[in-house]
Amino acid sequence: VPSERVFSSSKETCTARRASLSPPVLEALQVLKFSYKQDRLNFTEDLVADEVDYNISGRVSKKAVDELVAAGNLEELAQLLAN
């Protein structure tokens, strides 16, 4: 029953350590917990890079060339220079 889950979730939040929380703060915590559990709130969504983030456009700098050579990434360097 949904209402039982609400009270159960509140019980998890209202521990002895958190007993001094005001009702508005407690309500905000419950809303955040619900949103997080429903996958509506994702704090790590933007931490995962897309392949597009690694694309280099424009002129290749000398520093980038030196770093790729030092790392032994000659194929990647060739691809950059070809574009």
What does this protein look like?
With 83 residues, the chain is mainly alpha-helical. Helix content is 55%, strand content 0%. The chain contains four helices and no strands. The longest helix is centred in the middle third of the chain and has 15 residues, at 23-37. It is rod-shaped. The termini are far apart.
Summarize the structure.
The chain is built from 4 helices and no strands. It is an all-alpha fold and 83 residues long.
Percent in strands:
under 5%
Number of strands: 0
Helix and strand element order:
HHHH
- Output the structural class: mainly alpha
End-to-end separation in angstroms reads 60 Å
| Cα-based radius of gyration, to the nearest Å | 25 Å
Helix content: 55-70%
Shape: rod-shaped
- Quaternary organisation of the protein chains: single chain
Mean pLDDT: 76
For the largest beta-sheet, the strand count, sense and barrel status come to: none
Low-confidence stretches: none
- Count of DSSP helices? 4
